[in-house]
Specification:
This protein is mainly α. The chain contains 6 helices and 2 strands; from the N terminus they run H-H-H-H-E-H-E-H.
């Protein structure tokens, strides 16, 4: 979501836009919209931050193994994790493992 990374400090936004040049963008589908609506409708993600539900939905739709985020308020929120997983499964999709980078680091260190 280009619009999201263009917000805030102009210099930082330009760096973010430059950083994604050449990175493939995942397709947006009606299923992504419907899944995001379901996540918001369940109360797991508030309507005011609907974009966070899109991150979850697009990762699930495209069968991502992981969704890394520093957003523990609305995306990597343990309180709503199971609810989000259930909604994703109701769309016959496999939920990604939603983690902070630190949590992934811990998992990686445990396996090595």
């Amino acid at each position: 979501m280009i619009e999201e990374i263009m917000r805030g400090d102009i210099v930082a936004a330009e760096r973010r836009v430059h950083a994604i040049v050449g990175i493939e963008r995942l397709a947006w589908t009606q299923t992504v919209d419907d899944l995001a609506d379901a996540v918001v409708g369940s109360g797991a993600v508030p309507p005011k931050v609907r974009e966070d539900a899109f991150h979850i939905a697009i990762a699930a739709f495209h069968s991502m193994d992981y969704l890394l985020t520093w957003n523990q308020k609305h995306i990597a929120n343990r309180q709503y994790q199971r609810q989000i997983e259930t909604i994703i499964q109701s769309f016959h999709l496999t939920p990604p493992l939603i983690l902070t980078p630190e949590q992934l680091w811990e998992i990686d260190n445990e396996t090595t």
